[in-house]
Amino acid sequence: MTALHTRPIPQPIITAHEHAWSVESRHRTSEGTVLYVRCGDCGTRRVDVEQHPSMPPTALSRTLRR
Q1: pLDDT of residue 30
Q2: What CA–CA distance (Å, rounded) separates 48 from 26?
Q3: For residues 31 and 54, what is the distance between their CA atoms, to the nearest angstrom?
Q4: What is the pLDDT of residue 35?
Q5: Could you tell me which residue, 54 or 3, shows the higher pLDDT?
Q6: Over the stretch 25-43, which tens digit does the pLDDT of each residue have?
Q7: Which of 14, 18, 24, 38 has the most CB atoms at less than 10 Å from its CB?
Q8: Which strands sit side by side in the sheet containing 58-59, from one edge to the other?
Q9: Please, how many CA atoms are within 13 Å of residue 6, restricted to the half-sphere of its CB?
Q10: Is 28 exposed, middle or buried, given 0-12, 13-18 or 19+ CB atoms closer than 10 A?
Q11: Rounded CA gap, 31 and 36, in Å?
């Protein structure tokens, strides 16, 4: 039986924030150092590459939520 006046299922509210990336693991490749990073606040993960130690890493993947 279907009720006509049911309440919607609540959806979690995702708020945008500045990620606090920390490196979980790393390994060297011919392109540079690949970094597997995770945000300490929300648990989002991403893969970065560091081509030179004096340059900031660049993202290789999109952020992945659990």
Answers
A1: 94
A2: 9
A3: 15
A4: 96
A5: 54
A6: 999 999 899 999 999 988 9
A7: 38
A8: 21-29, 32-39, 45-50, 58-59
A9: 7
A10: exposed
A11: 15
